[in-house]
Every structure is written in C-alpha cells, then in structure tokens.
C-alpha cells in the first residue's frame, strides 16, 4: 500500500537539509516520488527551506518540467529541437494538438493524455521523434501518430 502523499513529502524533505540550494533537488525528488508537486505542500516546502510560498511557487512554475497536478495517464513528448523541426516536427506537433485537443504543456480534459515538448531525444537522424510514456518512436508522421495513439488507447486503457 502506498504511503499517503503527506508522509512521502515529509520523508522526502527530511532527506534534504534546509539549505536553499537543495530546493531544486528536493522538488525533483518529490515529483519523482509522488508524480507531481502538490499545491497543498508548497507552504511546507517553503518553510523547510526558509523561503516564501511565492518563491517556491515561482520555481515550480518557472520550470515546465514540474507539475502541480497529477500526471496524465499517457504523456506524449514531441521533440521540438532543430533536426526534428527540419523534418516536420512543427506539423506533427500541430497535428497532435488538434488530435488530442490540447496544446503543448496541456492535457486532455479527461486527464488521459498530456502533451509536452522535449528538446532532442538523440534520434536526430530519424526525426521527427517523440515519446509515449517514455517509449521512443522515430520518423513519426501524422498518420503514424494517429496509429500510435490508437494503439495506446486500446492497449493501456487510457
Ligand atoms: S532534434 Fe529531435 S531527436 Fe534530436
């Protein structure tokens, strides 16, 4: 049985001293453990590092990597770096936004899919590339994107 989120956050913070340069590592650890950084814990995180709530909130919102809400069941990351852009990543991203009905950094209304940009997956020679729940796919056309999403929808119950 998973420990309650309160305990996970408290235990995670306890692993870090109160030095302010430990804020980012602590936020990463919390997101790794919980899946996101619960807004209800921002005050406690701020107290732990002797920072204001606004300062911690500012850090969380500055970095797109950090989430304040539970992650979608399926995270789609589309590479937006140069090699992929030259091979159609902009068209692919626009297609993904239309197909899923959400923009970059957004998620579908039912929480099933999140769409995120990523900057180089090391597959530049096989671009455009994307990941779906961390599985990597190369040479993705809009039609292949649709097939991948259909496959995820049927096999992973998203
Ligand atoms: S630029 Fe997209 S994988 Fe490298």
Automatic annotation (TrEMBL):
<comment type="similarity">
    <text>Belongs to the complex I 24 kDa subunit family.</text>
</comment>
<dbReference type="InterPro" id="IPR002023">
    <property type="entry name" value="NuoE-like"/>
</dbReference>
<dbReference type="InterPro" id="IPR036249">
    <property type="entry name" value="Thioredoxin-like_sf"/>
</dbReference>
<feature type="binding site">
    <location>
        <position position="84"/>
    </location>
    <ligand>
        <name>[2Fe-2S] cluster</name>
    </ligand>
</feature>
<dbReference type="Pfam" id="PF01257">
    <property type="entry name" value="2Fe-2S_thioredx"/>
</dbReference>
<feature type="binding site">
    <location>
        <position position="120"/>
    </location>
    <ligand>
        <name>[2Fe-2S] cluster</name>
    </ligand>
</feature>
<protein>
    <submittedName>
        <fullName>Formate dehydrogenase gamma subunit</fullName>
    </submittedName>
</protein>
<keyword id="KW-0411">Iron-sulfur</keyword>
<keyword id="KW-0408">Iron</keyword>
<keyword id="KW-0479">Metal-binding</keyword>
<feature type="binding site">
    <location>
        <position position="124"/>
    </location>
    <ligand>
        <name>[2Fe-2S] cluster</name>
    </ligand>
</feature>
<dbReference type="GO" id="GO:0051537">
    <property type="term" value="F:2 iron, 2 sulfur cluster binding"/>
</dbReference>
<dbReference type="GO" id="GO:0016491">
    <property type="term" value="F:oxidoreductase activity"/>
</dbReference>
<keyword id="KW-0001">2Fe-2S</keyword>
<dbReference type="InterPro" id="IPR028431">
    <property type="entry name" value="NADP_DH_HndA-like"/>
</dbReference>
<dbReference type="InterPro" id="IPR041921">
    <property type="entry name" value="NuoE_N"/>
</dbReference>
<dbReference type="GO" id="GO:0046872">
    <property type="term" value="F:metal ion binding"/>
</dbReference>
<feature type="binding site">
    <location>
        <position position="79"/>
    </location>
    <ligand>
        <name>[2Fe-2S] cluster</name>
    </ligand>
</feature>
